[in-house]
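We examine the record.

___
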Amino acid sequence: MRLHPLAAPVIGLLFVTSVAAQPAVNRRYTETSLGPFPSEVRNSAVLSADGQHVAYVESGAGDRVFLDGKEQKSYDQVAGLEFSHDGTHLAYAARRDDRWYVVADGRESPGYEKVGVPHFSADGTKLAHVALLDVGMRTVVVNGQAGRPYDVISAGLIEFSPNGSRMAYGAVRDGKCYLVVDGEETGPFDDLGTRTGYRFSGNGSRLAFVALVGENLHVILDGRRSRPFYDVGDFVFSPDGKRTAFAAQEAKDGPWFVFLDAEKQGPYQTIGDQSLAFNSDGTRLAYAAQIDGRWSAVVDGKVGEPHKGIAEMRFSPDGKRLAYVAQDGETEAVVVDGKVERSFDAVGGGSLVFSPDSRRLGYIARSGYARFVVIDGTRKSRYTMVAYLNFTPDSRRYAYVALDETGAFTVVDDLPAAHRYESVWNSPGVNLLFDYRDRFHYIAVKKDELFLVEEKIE
């Protein structure tokens, strides 16, 4: 399977081509300066998920972090900038002399020999990181409190539940592996499945992970061990946490199956990585499966038409519609409600977006050197680059960012704004963010200065 990434975290003047002139639409907008933004700091820049804050590292006589243009304390070295999900907190690792610290909202942790990248819980109330102690052991520090020391913290992987109430990580002591959940050990095991990770249900009440016991892998769900498997792929909870699904191979070189609660689906040659998806109420499951060298979407246990490749299974918000990208030959097309739309050279990875009312579908595509959005099956204007497509909260309009020889700008209902920027920035995987049905915001660069831009659609 393959998809072409057409939208990057930054859309800017990387290259230009001539395009036909477009009618401009003036919209009310305000710019709030976030300070200087020289080109040499941009590789270190991190944006908050709410699209309103930017932090970066300026190097010289030491490293200095700038948050929304405001300089913070200087250190010998800075790494691992991380915002909380709501953008109200910033943390990073910093070294002074031979000691490392985690700096959160300007306050230093105790010094350690080394520290890992800090991680916030989804609600921003917890901050965790791995620390190397002077005795050579490692520990996980949560809100400044160090946990039990271990020989190894598995891959530095710390997992919070989606609601932020619980936390899990893998650890090794005396050659045995443990999963540490809310400070309590589960195990020992011979190894932990970092490929699958540690999965909490949405409300944090359930936990699943994969562990090696002897020569076999087991799914550990709610503390109960499954029968043995040779390999285990993705594991997902339904949004309400009541249902589970995972991909597994029962024997070496054998077929793969999907286990939906007590139901076994398959056999298949393999299951697409990260393709298992429940709909919003957990009543439907879709995934990509390979059969006889071809890929099909399996929806509600029924195998669909074969393709060369399949990716990005996406249910609509109401859970009734399904869209995915199918590759056949050298072209790609979106399949929605079982119907294949027009083919293009490529469809942008991660660009499929349903409107909030589930009635409309949009995505980014490419033909030749031109990029464009496709809305309800209709191709819109061509540009050098497009990104961040999203629908308004009332589903009536759509907006995105485009680039042509005049600069980077927003487009609403295929009408471009009159104001231009050197580049527009967004967090990876985040589309244009609407504050109201007629208002959205983004980060933009103009003349080496950073701006928070807020637009109101007239």
Notes: The radius of gyration is 24 Å. Residues 43 and 56 are 8 Å apart (CA to CA). The longest strand covers residues 28-36. The chain has no helices and 50 strands.
